[in-house]
Design a protein that fits this description.
Radius of gyration: 23 Å
Number of helices: 12
Distance between the termini: 61 Å
Oligomer: single chain
Order of helices and strands: HHHHHHHHHHHH
Shape: globular
Number of domains: 1
Structural class: mainly alpha
Length: 309
């Protein structure tokens, strides 16, 4: 990979890592419903403008059902779940749960396509779950009904992301990624519009949460999509998805710097296990090849020639 691709991957990881920080700031002021729906609405508007600037068409009448379905799976419902999770869990924890998406992709592929995963991918699923359990059991968060529900919400959001990616490939094979992203964001925005209207602020919000919500919609969703599309085009899907390794790291750093969230040994161990799991799922580790060892004693079992005997 050239320096430009590496730089874009770092920028994207910084942005997506920052999204969990911004949710922690925005949700207490705006609530779960308005934060999730407002973020998607802003993103949909920016992506629609970008789409028009590119001269592309959504073909809305033909694909609106698919846009709504994929948008609900890949943005609408997960954003609500992550906004709820931001009430109860640190930013770093949320990012680690988000990094389990590839693990659920393995399980969904196994179930939906009857495609048995490799031993490396199965090991990744087990190691990833061990990482989540480590953080939940030994981290700084006290396990209560609310925090446990937040963990479940994060895992459910990750599972929906994985299902949304599978449905995107099924319904929009060969389509321009900018078109599908814009259509799915509009579909998600329409789906969550009742939440947006029902949770309009009754007073002028504070500056910091307003800026955080704006950053979530414009930077962490719309601009991040554009960067990601270019990565997919220039580096390929396999290399581009390795950005998943970096997002939890930046989320931990941003949470510690700006929200004073502690980085404990348990959180580092859990993070390490999840990153190892993603490495296993993407089969980035090179397993040592088994060498066939010829046992000298075995040759004595073969019939010997008269000369040798």
């Amino acid at each position: 990979m050239n320096a430009g691709i590496v730089l874009r991957m770092l920028v994207l990881a910084m942005i997506w890592g920052g999204s969990f920080l911004f949710m922690r700031i925005a949700v207490p002021e705006f609530g779960t419903g308005f934060t999730a729906s407002g973020r998607i609405a802003l993103s949909a508007l920016v992506l629609l403008a970008f789409l028009r600037w590119q001269g592309l068409s959504l073909d809305w009448r033909r694909h609106w059902r698919a846009y709504a379905w994929v948008g609900a799976l890949s943005a609408g419902v997960p954003f609500v779940l992550f906004a709820f999770m931001a009430h109860h869990l640190p930013a770093g924890y949320s990012a680690v749960l988000n990094a389990t998406v590839p693990l659920f992709a393995v399980l969904l592929g196994w179930y939906l396509q009857r495609r048995r995963p490799s031993w490396s991918k199965l090991a990744g699923v087990v190691v990833g779950l061990a990482g989540v359990v480590t953080i939940a059991r030994f981290g700084t968060v006290t396990l209560t009904a609310a925090t446990l529900l937040a963990f479940v919400a994060g895992l459910l959001a990750a599972a929906l992301y994985a299902l949304g990616a599978a449905e995107l490939r099924r319904l929009f094979t060969g389509a321009d990624p900018v078109v599908t992203a814009t259509g799915s964001q509009i579909g998600a925005a329409l789906l969550l519009s009742p939440l947006l209207l029902a949770n309009l602020p009754v007073r002028a919000p504070a500056l910091a949460p307003s800026l955080a919500l704006t950053a979530l919609g414009l930077v962490c969703t719309a601009i991040a999509f554009v960067i990601y599309f270019r990565l997919l085009r220039d580096a390929g899907s396999e290399r581009a998805t390795t950005v998943t390794f970096l997002v939890p790291l930046f989320a931990q750093v941003w949470g510690a710097l700006f929200l004073h969230e502690p980085i404990t040994a348990a959180s580092l161990v859990g993070l390490g296990l999840v990153l190892l799991a993603v490495t296993l799922v993407f089969e980035k580790l090179r397993w040592p090849q088994r060498r066939r060892v010829v046992i000298a004693a075995a040759t004595t079992l073969a019939p010997c020639s008269a000369k040798d005997c």
